Amino acid sequence: MSVTIPREKIDQILNRFEFLEAKMADGVGADEYVKLSREYSALEGIARQAKAYRQLQADLREAQAMLDDPEMREFAEEELAAIEQKMPLAEREMQLALIPKDEADDKSAILEIRAGTGGDEAALFAGDLFAMYTRYAAEKGWKIEVMEESPGEVGGFKEIIASVKGDNVFGALKFESGVHRVQRVPATESGGRIHTSAATVAVLPEAEEIDIEIRNEDIRIDTMRASGAGGQHVNTTDSAVRITHIPTGIVVTSSEKSQHQNRARAMQVLRARLYDTQRQAADAARAADRKGQVGSGDRSERIRTYNFPQGRVSDHRINLTLYKLDQVMQGALDEFVEALQAADQAEKLAEMENS
């Protein structure tokens, strides 16, 4: 029988894993150790799979060799039958393990939601989406912290930015980026007409200083008076911070009460946006000759429709419709998340098989 995973590929994985193990044991600087340990953790599962697959290959060759021995032939034939039964599943699992992993999947994330077309109703929908993600995060044991918000005139948000901290946050939420459309009768509509509004969602992997280096000479930091709704809560000091990244033109602001906290939060968002820009450029280069099934994460791509009169939610990238709108808005997102992850995995596997 043919073995589809080259032995050289298995050896390459195991050699790299053993090198990382030895390098970390030698004692290296803290920053390098963090990088090495991340790669080691990422490789640990596939290395275990590779060892098991290599052992199965070795057992296959040994059983084939025993066929020439008359006394061992019957035993060899039984062994071969057992190995040949195991091999297709082992090959499939090895192929899945070899699918390139997005190194950002394990990271926490920055969640940005902005009201789109639809005026007050769009802001209300942005608020509904934030509540949906907040409930989903609570179910997963993640921590959400609002970093910047601009309330809508009648509720909801014109814009809200939050950090979502926990394990595998970005891997679960990254396919949420895009335009979310809602079809419903607004509370302000007396005639009962269905309106269509939209909000955009951006999910960025949270970058650490080790991921992105920001030079002091590349940024301009301005302080300004924080805006408020009036009355005693208006900030009368120059605490709001605006940071401009000169090479890219990216501008981030934070306008809470503490200037120190504002600067830290603005730098956090800036690192995430720069990291995301680098990832988007790399993804675009890799995928220049194809259109992804799940989508590129383009912020202008309409990805999902929430139809309240019919109680359905439809994801347009994978043609999945669930008549569970109430549950979804309460944070029951796993069916969409898992289906999108599976579609992405299937696409990458097909690419590998065709390459």
Question: Could you explain the architecture of this structure?
Answer:
The chain has 355 residues and is an alpha+beta fold. The chain folds into two domains: 7-98; 109-288 and 297-347, Alpha-Beta Plaits (2-Layer Sandwich). Helices cover 46% and strands 21% of the residues. It has eight helices and eleven strands. The radius of gyration is 26 Å and the shape is flat. The two termini are 22 Å apart. The model is unreliable at 228-236 and 289-293 (pLDDT under 50).
Count of individual beta strands: 11
Computed over alpha carbons, the radius of gyration is 26 Å
- Major sheet: 8 strands, mixed
SSE run: HHHEHEEHEEEEEHEEEHH
CA(first)-CA(last) distance: 22 Å
Q: What is the CATH topology assignment of the largest domain? A: Alpha-Beta Plaits
Global shape: flat
Relative strand content: 15-25%
The CATH class of the largest domain, by name, is Alpha Beta
Strand order of the largest sheet: 2-3-1-5-4-9-10-11
